[in-house]
Amino acid sequence: MSDNRLIVALDFDSMDKVQKLVAELGDAVGHYKVGMELFYAVGAEAIRFLRAADKEVFLDLKLHDIPNTVSNSAKVLTMLGATMVNVHASGGLAMMKGAALAALETAATSGRPRPKLIAVTVLTSLDEAEWARLNCAAPIGAQAVNLAKMAREAGLDGVVASPQEAAAIRAACGAEFLIVTPGVRPAGSAVNDQSRVATPGGALRAGATHLVVGRPITAALEPKAAALAILREMGAE
Ligand code: C5P
């Protein structure tokens, strides 16, 4: 059985690359993230392929629009069979509540599983200088916790957050709340454009329930070896 706390980000623009990587990682990885790039390039085909291969699918489209548009989109994404979907918490309480209700009702009426619904707090690529430019009065960490509490109040299952905010979110939102952390970098690997990063062990110790890892696996010379090294580190926690 794969450890589905590891979610590998399929940041590709074609099904060829997806099929190659999924075949290469085999049973080691059971959970994948389909983001904007892949979904805009190939659409629902990516979800169908992964579900047929018995993989969990986190559809990372970060919905952010008026409540009516987001709830209607959440219905469609539930019908597509994603097992986890997300919205931007900064879209507000009504938007998040609408999405949660739409996923619940669509799952109940269609017999499909209800996807876990999580909210993006503050993008892990934003550093203090970028944050200052956004002119938000609260510091990044406080705003991430504030958005996480809003997501919980709206009935969402959890949040996407930086590993550096995971401990404070865990303390504020309780033991059951999902905390999905991108910005995970094994010691000694390239940080790329991420700013608020942690090692796999560090992210889990801080309270993360799932780790999203892209380039440290997808751009590695040996992706399976890279995934297994991360899984070993996770298993040691
Ligand atoms: O390659 P890397 O490990 O940086 O990939 C991280 C993935 O997580 C990317 O697909 C990115 O879009 C996503 N992500 C993120 N920060 C967020 C939400 C999603 O890096 N707050």
Which terms summarize this structure?
single chain; 237 residues; alpha/beta; TIM Barrel; eight-stranded parallel β-barrel; 11 helices; 48% helix; globular; binds cytidine-5'-monophosphate
Describe the structure concisely.
Strands 1-2-3-4-5-6-7-8 form an 8-stranded parallel β-barrel, surrounded by 6 helices.
Structure report:
- This protein has 237 residues and is α/β, with parallel strands linked by helices.
- The protein has one domain (6-235): Aldolase class I (TIM Barrel, Alpha-Beta Barrel).
- Helix content is 48%, strand content 16%.
- It has eleven helices and eight strands.
- The chain has helices at 15-25, 36-42, 45-52, 67-80, 93-110, 128-134, 140-153, 163-173, 200-205, 215-218, 223-235, and strands spanning 6-9, 31-35, 56-63, 84-88, 116-120, 158-160, 178-181, 210-213.
- It has an eight-stranded parallel barrel, surrounded by six helices.
- Helix 5 links the parallel strand 4 (84-88) and strand 5 (116-120).
- Helix 4 (67-80) runs parallel beside helix 5 (93-110) and helix 7 packs across helix 8.
- The protein is globular and about 45 Å long.
- The mean pLDDT is 95.
- Cytidine-5'-monophosphate (C5P) is lined by residues 9, 11, 35, 60, 120, 123-124, 160, 182-183, 192, 194, 212-216.
CATH superfamily: Aldolase class I
Tell me the Rg in angstroms.
17 Å
In DSSP terms (H or I, runs of 4 or more residues), the helix count works out at 11
Give me the CATH architecture, please.
Answer: Alpha-Beta Barrel
How much of the residues is beta strand, in percent? Answer: 15-25%
